[in-house]
Each structure stands twice: as C-alpha cells, then as structure tokens.
Amino acid sequence: MAAVAGAASSQDQLPKRIRQWVTGQDGLDRLRIEEVDLPEPGEDEVLVEVRAVSLNYRDTEVAMGLYNHHSSVSHPPAIVPCSDMCGTVVSCGPVTDSNSPFKNPAFRLQVGDRVISTFAPTHLSGQVQASDVAQGLGGPEPGVFTQYRVFPTYGVVKIPEYLSHEEASCLPIAAMTAWMSLNCMRPKGEIIGTSGAKEVILCQGTGGVSIAGLQIANAAGADVIVTSSSDKKLEKASKMGAKETVNYKTTPDWDAEVLNRTSNKGADIIFELGGAQTLRKSFECVSFGGLIACIGYLSGKQDDDGDRTNTNLLALKRNVTLKGILNGPRDELERMLVFYKEKEIRPVVDRVFKFDEGKEAIKYLFSGGHFGKVVVKIKE
C-alpha cells in the first residue's frame, strides 16, 4: 500500500474543541452534551463538519438501552448517538492506493464536498452481514450527533446539489430502508416502475420510512395506500399522492378494507412497521405472491399472549415472501440518489431543532407525533 497524495487540510482554521451529544444508554433524560478534542483524519479518511442530523426510532432505543436484538451489536458504556447526517468535508487525510474494495478511487473526496453518512460503512454491496451491523453508526460505533466527525471515505456519499443539508440528512436510514423495501426482491438492475406493471404499495403509518416509501413509489407510478390513526396525517398523505388512506383506529379491520380498495387483490408490497399487532393483518391483505417488508416493531417486541401466528400457514396461504429490511448497501444508496435527483424528490421534514435542543428532539420523535422526519440543525 502506497500513499499517492498528501493531506488536503484546513485543520488550522478549525476549532480545537468540539461539542457532541452522548448517551450512557440509560434513558432519554440522561442524554448530555460533552466537549472533546477535534479529531483529525488519517489515511483514506475525511473530517466532516456536520450540518444536520436526522433522527430514527432506533436512536431512542439506543438511548434507552433497548437496542438489543442484534447479537453482533455490543453496548459500550457511553456513545455518541445517531447515524444519519449531512455535512461538508473540511479536511482530507492522505490517500493510499490498493486493490481493496474500500480503497476504490471513486470514493475519494475533496474539501467542500457535501456528503451523507452510510449507516453501516463496511456494507458496500449485497446482503448485509453481522460484521457490517457491528460497525453501525450510533450503536455500537460512535454516531454522528456531533459538530465534526472523521469518516472513512467509503462511509460517506456525495449528494445532489438540489437537496438542503436538512433534507439530505433524512436519506441514510429512512429513505434507504424504503428504497430497499421496494426494490430488494427485483431482478438485478430493475427498480420499481420499470417493469410495466402497476403495483400497489401499503405503507403503515406516517413516519420517516413510510413517507419516503410514499414519495418513491408515487414517483415511480405505483398506487400507494397509507394507514394511520390520524385523519389529519392521512389528509397530508393524500395531498402527497397517496391514492387511498385508511384510519386503522376507526377501521380496525383495515386488512379487509385494503382488500376492498384493491378489488380483493391486496398490496404487492407492504411496509410492515407495526410488528406483533399488525403482522397477521398484513398477511391477510398482501397480494398473492407479494412481499411483506419487515421494517419495525412499533407495537412492541413481544407477541400478544392470545396470538400464536402460524407464519408458515399464513405465508403459504397467499404465497408470500417475508423479508427483513436492515437498511441497504452503499451501491444501492448511490442508485437511490440518482432516482431522487431524476424525480426531484425532497424528503419531508416535520420539524427542525437546534443543536442544544437535541434531547427535546429525541423525546419529540419518541412521542410519535411527527409526520416524516425530525431533524437537528447542527450549525446555524
């Protein structure tokens, strides 16, 4: 391995000390700000000035010590939370040359490049591995809720110019999870909207993943059904292009309603975010040969005592594919960004908090009142 270029750096003009949020994974109320030395980039690394961080439900679990369903994820005593950021490269370490896929010359960056983080930096292509999850930002690896952070060049991706920092920060997990839910089971090279078939997509709820799914699917020409307990949120979804909306509080048999709205066909892809209390109904309203994308567990991680879901029988009933969606690889993120630019999709930002309001921002996300994404602006 040989160094082929020296460091490009404006490090001398940067602050010597920076502020960052830290969690001991002991509760939302115990999130705190600490001051640390400014890090410096090493070989094939860049120092990024973080401009905006978007929050995910996962971040609340990490802060509460509840993110425990991946055996490869350790639990350090204190960690910088959050995984999704947009920022500007302010310093570059020396570039080295080798045949490693992590040293791809296409990953090289320059000072001034605007970039977003990838959730699991080592996940470059294909199916995610336990070793990739073990490198996840914001748990177990240090996250991005900080003013400056060093990244390997393979762990950040340049963004289209039309997106603001706040908008772009919403892409790494929420939009990427939606993208993979819509595209992961297709023939190689094919994406939603290119097969010629009119698809029906069911998005549960109006959080970041479902709203991104609505935007992507709508831009691709699919029919989208959105469920929520809030008529106000459903009205917003309709204005964004949802063909059908269902209030699952006033229509508890929402699975039957989905079948009714689709002439008994069902949804080709279901964004399954509820978990224990919604999965059985998802099986009942997915199309024959359709996909249930298992994304979340907002109704809890424990099965209901009275519900013993016979997954084999339910899957066979409609020839269903059940697929866990754990974000996606770098190459799919790059492909998604091309689609976003072509369709000029702008992520929906529900509310923007200031850096010092980080604790309030995570609590607001946990309350569930948001529509789309919650963002913290790191630099005013």
TrEMBL record:
SUPFAM superfamilies (alphabetical): GroES-like (SSF50129), NAD(P)-binding Rossmann-fold domains (SSF51735)
UniProt-recorded Gene Ontology molecular function terms: oxidoreductase activity
Taxonomic placement: Eukaryota, Fungi, Dikarya, Ascomycota, Pezizomycotina
Entry-linked InterPro entries: ADH-like_C, ADH-like_N, ER, GroES-like_sf, NAD(P)-bd_dom_sf, Zinc_ADH-like
Cross-referenced Gene3D superfamilies: Medium-chain alcohol dehydrogenases, catalytic domain, NAD(P)-binding Rossmann-like Domain
Domain of life: Eukaryota
Protein name: Alcohol dehydrogenase
Residue ranges constituting the Enoyl reductase (ER) domain according to the UniProt record: 27-376
Pfam families associated with the record: ADH_N (PF08240), ADH_zinc_N (PF00107)
